[in-house]
Amino acid sequence: MSAAAKVTLAGSILFTITSVAAVHWQHIKERERMHEGVLRDEERLAAKQRQDENARDLAAQQALERELRAQQEMESDTTMPAAAINAPMVIATPTSEPSAPASSTSGRSWWKFW
């Protein structure tokens, strides 16, 4: 076998090994990138689920707050003192304008501000 043939054979073998190694390396990198995409999708789905859960928690808290506020309003409306409930209702209607207090300089009656 001549020297030129040996160099050509060695170059062909080297080229083939390099090509196979490069294709194998590209395949490994592509598989890693695809796996990273799956991980990103899982993270995105987990974030979306957390966001949905937070929205549900917020809605539940708002509903509870409305319910508690309504309950407090009902309790404050129904907790009047017994004397106020049993006391007769008196409506005063002024027949004439009362005189202004001595310290007032404006000349307006005190009851107009009520």
TrEMBL record:
PANTHER family: PROTEIN PET117 HOMOLOG, MITOCHONDRIAL (PTHR28163)
Protein name, entry field: Cytochrome c oxidase assembly protein
Record keyword Mitochondrion present: yes
Subcellular localization(s) per the UniProt record: Mitochondrion
GO terms for biological process, alphabetical: mitochondrial respiratory chain complex IV assembly
Signal peptide: 1-22
GO cellular component, one term: mitochondrion
Keyword check for Cell inner membrane: no
Family: Belongs to the PET117 family.
Transmembrane intervals: none
Stretches the record annotates as Disordered: 92-114
Origin: domain of life: Eukaryota
High-level lineage: Eukaryota, Fungi, Fungi incertae sedis, Blastocladiomycota, Blastocladiomycetes
Low complexity bias (residue ranges): 92-106
Keyword annotations from UniProtKB, A to Z: Mitochondrion, Signal, Transit peptide
